Amino acid sequence: MKPETSEAPQTVLVVDDEPTARVALAARLKRLGYRVLQAGDGKAGLDLLRRERPDLTILDWMMPEMDGPSFCETVRRDPTLLSSQILMMTGNDQPEQIAEGLARGADDFLSKAASKYEITARVQAGIRAAGLIRRLEDVTAEIRQKQEALEQELQSAARYVESLLPASGPVVPGVRMARLYRPSLALGGDLFNIVPWSDDFLGLYLLDASGHGVSPALRSSAFATFLRRDSLMRHVGSNDPGAILTEANKQFPLTERGHYFTIVFASLDLRCRILSYASAGHGGALLHRRSGEVCWLAQPNLPLGFDPSTTYVTATLPIEPGDRVYLLSDGLYEFPAANGELWGQERLETTIRALAQQPLETVIAETIAEAVRAQGHEQFPDDVALMGVEIERELG
Q: What's this model's pTM, rounded to 2 decimal places?
C-alpha cells in the first residue's frame, strides 16, 4: 500500500549498522513510496534527524558507539527533536526489552522477523502519528502567534489607558495629586482622573468597567469622554455628582453581554470647603482627615445600567486643609493575602492611617507595596488603581 497522500512523499530514516538489513528495509520502503534516508550508526542518524527532520525513524537496538535506547534518550532530551516518531527494531522482542525501550523513548517496536505486512502496517501507523503531531505543532504555533498578537494588542491598549491617566503633581494652586496604576495580566477597565473646572472647583472620579480585555478598556475610555467638563455641561448642565451619575446611568446601559460600570464621582469645592460625592456600585473612596478620622465614601446603590430609572443622590462632607481624598479600585483590597484571608478594606485603612505623616506620594507607593507584601507576589489578580488628592492651602 502506498502512503496516503498526494503531496511530497513522507521521509523515513533507517538507522542500522548492518548494511544488508538496512538496504533491504530501505528498498522495501521505497517501493511503498517513501523517501528513505540511511545511516550506519546512531551518531550519523542523529545528524540526519536534526538536518532532515524525517517523519519516522526506524532504529536498530544493537549498534556500536550509540545503541538504539541511547539514541532515543538523546532525542527526548532535545526540545527540537522531542516529538520525533521512533520505531525500534530488535531481534529480541521479549516484554522486558520492549518495556525498557518504551521507557527510554521509543514510540513502537518492530521485530526483525516481522512480515512485510506488519512492517507496512507499523510504518504507516508511525507516519500517521507523526502527521498528527506535526499538525498539532502547526496549530500550536498558530495559537502562539495569535497569543503574541493579542498580547501586543493588550499592551497597546494598556499604553492607551495609561495615556488617559493624569500625571502626579500640582493640580491647582494648593492642591496636589499622586497616583499609581498597576494593571493585571488581563487588561481591565479601571480608569480615573481629576479635572480642574476652576482654581476653586475640582472633579475627580474612578470608574471600572466589568470584565477584562480590550473591550472594557475601550468602554471606559468612551465613558471618560462623557465625563469631560464640556460634555457634562452639555448632557447634564451641572457638576453635581448625583446628577452626573443619574445621566450616565441612562447613557451607558447594560451591554448585550451584561457588562456594566461601577463608579465613584466626587467634587471638591475649595471655596465652600465641601466634598460632594455619589457612587454607583463602587465603594472605593475615602476621606482621611488631618485629625486622623477616616470616612468611607460609599453608598448602597446599583452599578450603572441596571435600571434606567435609578436616581443617584449626592452626599456631602466638610473638608479642611491637610485632608486627603483617596479613590481606589477594589482590586487593591479584594485579593487573597498569603494566609488565604481577604486583605480587605480594614487592613487597607490601617495601612493608610499608619502612613498619615508621610508625603502623599509615599502613602500611595507604600500602600501598594504593603498590598504586594500581603499577597506575597507582585502581580495582582485585578487592576489596581490608587489616586490621592491632598488639600494643602487655606480654604474659603
A: 0.66
Calpha distance 138→154 (Å, rounded): 24
| 57 grid coordinates | 525513524
Grid cell for residue 188: 481591565
Mean pLDDT of 295-311: 91
Q: Report how far apart, in Å, the C-alpha atoms of 159 and of each of 109, 145, 165, 206, 391 are.
A: 55, 21, 10, 18, 30
Nearest to 265 by CA among 289, 290, 239: 239
pLDDT higher than threshold 50 for residue 39: yes
Grid cell for residue 164:
488617559
Mean of the per-residue pLDDT values of the chain? 88
Q: Which residue is associated with the grid cell 435600571?
A: 307
220 backbone φψ class: left, alpha, beta (φ>0; ψ -120 to 50) = alpha
- Label the pairing between strands 261-269 and 274-280: antiparallel
Q: What is the pLDDT of residues 264-302, one digit of tens each?
A: 999 999 999 999 999 999 888 999 999 999 999 988 889
Q: Which residue has the cell 541511547?
A: 70
Contacts of 7 (CB under 8 A, 6+ apart): none
Q: How confident is the model at residue 57 (pLDDT cuts 50, 70, 90)?
A: very high
User: Cell numbers at residue 204, please?
Assistant: 475627580
CATH for the stretch 165-391: 3.60.40.10
Q: Are 54 and 75 in contact (CB under 8 A)?
A: no
Cell of 20: 544488508
Q: Using DSSP, state whether 198 is helix, strand or coil.
A: strand
Using CA atoms, how far residue 364 sits from 149, 177, 296, 371, in Å, is 33, 10, 17, 11
pLDDT tens digits for range 236-247: 988 999 999 999
Tens digits of per-residue pLDDT, 193-203? 998 888 899 99
CATH of 11-139, one of 3.40.50.2300, 1.20.1250.20, 1.10.760.10, 3.40.630.10: 3.40.50.2300
The structural domains of the chain, with segments of one domain joined by +, span 11-139, 165-391
Q: How far is Cα 343 from Cα 349, in angstroms, rounded to an integer? A: 11
Phi and psi at 158, nearest 5°, equal -65, -40
**297 is written with which cell numbers?**
465614601
Overall average pLDDT of the 165-183 stretch: 88
Angular region, 258: left φ>0, alpha ψ -120 to 50, beta rest: left
Grid coordinates representing 152? 501586543
